[in-house]
């Protein structure tokens, strides 16, 4: 049976559109190529495929992963953006490893996802979403500090948080906003969720990693009119006083095809400059 491969391209970016033509040629040698627009619309049931190739930056890959996660098919990320931390392949890498990538047993990386529920003050269920990188409670306009109550695994005592918000990051997302806010980098194979405060009005509130199966609850006690929950920097849910965010690991995982040329620690050093030393002045021999 011929392999069926989706080709999803962020054509807003000229670099992605150009790379897509190269990718299409590579894919056509190994599979039947099915073109799909890069948007948020659910794929019709009639669109059947065995593997998906997403050409764009990490943001495009994250958005399309949310779109495809229920299909439980492998996803190949071809970088045509700036960083390319999650989108592991260049067009050259894809050409080199195409027989393996489009073969019967491509190397896969399972990535944990966050399942996020928003519960209104009256107890009604507002929405459910998922995040590959993070779910962020952002203070928003007029940018005054907000007040929250955090509990983990039904801990009734919990803790109060006053600050600009909270980041709940997956191990995959630990190198994104979480890292910028001073949170720890967590290897993607670790089953955990990082809780990192944003500018907490406390000298004692440090980031913490909790087990992925635990239920995290954050109730908003005082918010701004612009306060919202942001999923992967792409989906926004307005929040009001008394609303609650609940988060835990999603029952499904994202399946990414691994680039055999990459090791996690090599990518961390090359892309994130992890553990890079200061630029010392050369004093000679």
For the biggest sheet, the summary is: 6 strands, antiparallel
Mean pLDDT: 95
* Class computed from helices, strands and strand pairing: alpha+beta
> Globular, elongated, flat, extended or rod-shaped: what is the shape?
globular
Total separate domains: 2
Low-confidence stretches: none
Gyration radius, in Å = 21 Å
Strand order of the largest sheet: 7-6-17-14-9-10
CATH architecture of the largest domain: Sandwich
Lay out the secondary structure.
Layout lengths: L3 E6 L4 H15 L3 E6 L13 E6 L1 H11 L6 E5 L11 H11 L6 E4 L2 E6 L5 E7 L2 E5 L7 E7 L6 E5 L1 E5 L7 H4 L11 E7 L9 E4 L4 E7 L5 E4 L3 E4 L5 E6 L4 E4 L6 H9 L13
Parallel strand pairs: 1-2, 1-3, 3-4
Antiparallel strand pairs: 5-18, 6-7, 6-17, 8-11, 8-15, 9-10, 9-14, 11-12, 12-13, 14-17, 15-16
What's this model, at a glance?
The protein has 285 residues and is of the alpha+beta class.
Protein architecture, described:
The protein is of the alpha+beta class and 285 residues long. It has helices at 14-28, 58-68, 91-101, 177-180, 264-272; strands spanning 4-9, 32-37, 51-56, 75-79, 108-111, 114-119, 125-131, 134-138, 146-152, 159-163, 165-169, 192-198, 208-211, 216-222, 228-231, 235-238, 244-249, 254-257. The protein has two domains: 4-111 and 253-272, Rossmann fold; 114-249, Probable inorganic polyphosphate/atp-NAD kinase, domain 2 (Tumour Suppressor Smad4, Sandwich), CATH 2.60.200.30. It contains five helices and 18 strands. The chain has a six-stranded antiparallel β-sheet, with no helix packed on it. The protein has a six-stranded antiparallel β-sheet with strand order 13-12-11-8-15-16, with no helix packed on it. Helix 1 links the parallel strand 1 (4-9) and strand 2. Helix 1 (14-28) runs parallel beside helix 3 (91-101). The relative contact order is 0.16. The mean pLDDT is 95.
